[in-house]
Amino acid sequence: MDPELIGDCVHCGFCLPTCPTYVLWGEEMDSPRGRIHLMGQHVGGTPLTPEMAGHFDACLGCMACVTACPSGVRYDRLIEQTRAEVERAHRRPLQERALRALVFRLFPYPRRLRAMRLPLRLTEGARRRLAPRLERISPSLAAMAELAPPVPARVRLPRRVRAVGRRRATVGMLTGCVQGAFFPQVNAATARVLAMEGCEVVIPPAQGCCGALSLHSGLPEQAVRLAERTLATFERAGVDTVVVNAAGCGSTMKEYGDLLGEDRAQNIRVVDLSEYLAEIGPVATRHPLPVTVAYHDACHLAHAQGIRAQPRALLSAVPGLRLVEIAESSICCGSAGTYNLLQPEAARDLGDRKAERVLATGADLLVSANPGCTLQIGSAVRRRGAGPIPVAHVAQVLDASLRGLDRAW
Amino acid sequence: MPDTALDEPVRRFLEILGPGSVITDPVRLRTYECDGLTHHRTSPGVVVLPETAEQVAAIVRVCARHGVPFVARGAGTGLSGGALPRTDGVLVVTSRMRRILSIDLPNRLAVVEPGVTNLAITEAVREQGYYYAPDPSSQQVCSIGGNVAENSGGAHCLKYGFTVNHVLALEIVTPDGDLVELSHTDPGYDLLGAFVGSEGTLGITTKVTVRLTRAPQAVTTLLAAFDDVESGGRAVSAIIGGGILPAAIEMMDALAIEAAEAAVACSYPEGAGAVLIVELDGPSPEVAHQFAEVRRICEENGAFELRVAADPAERAAVWKGRKSAFAAVGRISPAYIVQDGVVPRTALPEVLADIERISGEHGIRVANVFHAGDGNLHPLVLFDDDEPGAAERAELVSGRILDLCVEHGGSITGEHGVGIDKSRYMTKMFSEDDLATMQLVRCAFDPEGLSNPGKVFPTPRLCGEAPGVRRGAHPLVESGQAEQF
Question: Where in the numbering of this chain does the FAD-binding PCMH-type domain appear (chain B) (predicted)?
């Protein structure tokens, strides 16, 4: 934990109301300012107590505080360093260790995740019936059972998708872990939209995890290994721009320079799908979609990448589409990577808060640009018994509009 | 150091609040060691997080019974150390009391709990065309309870007045633990007026009835760039002297602009030695007329660029630089002191020149951000805390700025309060008799001196104790005008 970065905090408190855990609990120790104070205490020689570790673990890593901070405190860097320190210096109870081992041996591995698809599909009904009983054994396992989506048919993506009309660019596309396993239709839509907008899309098979989950969970060595492999994959594919449709992955890949060194990372430019589409401008015809859409800001898009306007502009440009705002849009939904598995109670409270505000918009469709948020809000809406509100990715809405479909979600 | 005198009170707090709302772990306690003013730090003896007024009253009764001092804290954004805790005391944090209890638009008022943020009130009524007028720069964070304690101001207080002008009633817990209502309609002494701005020394606010203000029909915000603060200052005097009362007139000097640029890229005119933000609001024809006047005055006083914010987004962009200025200074300096003083508006150019001179003498940079319309200065005294002696020199410069304010007939604080930080300067403004009289007011509410002791007054004193060096009875007591408790 870098004392200089800690020293940047002037204790003004502007971060407090943007912090999801402060919003929930109203305690200094569970605010960014309080956590930075705890980091300072530890750097100053206070041993890392289980209480301290608990407050660090409770941070979602949503980066809303980074957006809010007028002093430019790099809380993102600080919490990453702190999580690594927690993994080094803090011995977790057995049950917690087992759960974390399960999560980190499953999620960053697309093939293992895909292997889960069949059992998940076969047990869909049983899972939901089982969830309340699991709650007593482990709230985390219950959360996992509740979150897992209905598994769609597998979509096989070609290695290369030709541009429709004149080719304007050639880009690589990240398929992601959770996105690839549980939302293959989003990847298919992304590839089609890019192609219809004049991009040749290169999709290297056997892509690995980008390293986001590990990096955000205090496992930098695993993150470096995965990042290195991801970079190599796209370099071999011969692209210099990689389009990412999952917010968490995009934000991590944009920081490969910090992780692997600027020299190593400079050959590949990483862009979010919305960012890229806004940048190249539209060429394909948009067909009307008469639908009211509530757009959800994924933290790793809005806060970590500063991308708020582009997805809204893309959606608003669809004829007939009405865009509505969700109250408290900058507060995290509680998904936050693996947070909803590791901190299920807080995640559930935040999910409920978000679901309530999403439903209050009266929208017919929720659009989210991150698979984790989609799962989290979807399950929170189901829990309220109010839904289900369909949830789609920006790519799917654009895909439907470009192809003149009624809907594609 | 665990204070055994707190053992019994802590047991009682656990009964009243439950374990989730009583903090005794030393590592956690330390996160509460300071508010927005970080150079005074004290770890509290215990922190309690009540959720209802009744719980606050019960907590204070326990304190009163055991003679334990207590300090109230909202969001911990204060800049005078008003919420600095005590190791032998209880820190009562209202951050979980954040419900908006009722909104009554026909009567233009809202009843809120003390932990509600200033901006949350506005957000709750904005769509209906209302807002809560006082707007401290920390409005999205700071709590209304803290605003009441400090009588907080903000940029728009020039026209609309301070917190005291917008609080219609309070429910407070007195230092002996009674829940009492104070209202602006109460006949007799204006106890509500006495309580607002009492910096936590008269009790703890548990409910606030605020006035809601109708959003103006038209708002125009003008950004004017000048070569130097003197010409900006002359423009301010000319505007007010011309009979125009803008909603706000704010000035930032070159260093403050540099910080704001670094923090929020506010894109103020390049090369400006000072910028003025003038906001006019009211009925459209009036605003249009005044706008033409302000524009003329700025140009006459040497403004080299004028920008008009045409819509709410542009207005927000203009204000963003100003509102983030304090914390933004963190971008250009490792450490800084936010000073708060008042001078007569007409003395602005002279005082600013003096500040520059003092800054040069001590080799300490001073960035100036201020509510120019009412002469409320916020010099930001910049220093490097790693450089030996720098903090002391900064403290010296900061103190000399306050001397300047007093010498020019101003005040040692405009809106940040006295707290712990400025209690020692109180004697520069007030005589022993003045302070003794204030102490009598304090004693009427808090005879045991348990409510935020050690703040505001330069020397802590128990009620009944002979104040100062004076021997014999207090003159007010002697003349039969007052009675000592």
Answer: 40-215
Average pLDDT, chain A: 89
Is the CATH number of domain A3-89 2.60.40.1180? no
Q: Could you say which of B273, B305, B332 is where a domain stops?
A: B332
The structural domains of chain A, with segments of one domain joined by +, span: 3-89, 292-403
* Residues of A in Cβ contact (< 8 Å) with B117: 17
Conformational region of residue A400, where left means phi above 0, alpha means psi within -120 to 50, and beta covers everything else: alpha
Judged by a CB distance cut-off of 8 A, whether residue A28 touches chain B is: yes
If interface means Cβ-Cβ distance under 8 Å, which residues of chain B face chain A?
Answer: 23, 25, 27-28, 30-36, 38, 49, 75-77, 93, 95-96, 98, 115, 117, 138, 140-142, 262-264, 324, 326-328, 330-331, 334, 336
Where chain B has pLDDT below 50, the residues are: 1, 466-471
**Whole-angstrom Cα distance, residue A403 to residue A195?**
12
B465 found inside a domain? yes
Size of interface A-B (CB pairs under 8 A): 86
pLDDT tens per residue, range A331-368 = 999 988 788 888 989 999 999 999 999 999 999 999 99
> Is A166 touching B (CB cutoff 8 A)?
no
Task: Identify the domain containing residue B8 by its residue range.
Answer: 4-93
- Which residues share a beta bridge with B167? B210
End-of-domain residue from the set B306, B332, B358: B332
Residue A274 has pLDDT above 90, yes or no: yes
Residues A153-181, mean pLDDT to the nearest whole number? 89
Average pLDDT on A140-147 reads 68
Distance from A297 to chain B by nearest Cα, in Å? 20
Sheet with A160-161, strands from edge to edge, namely A160-161, A199-202, A169-173, A241-244, A269-272
DSSP A150: P
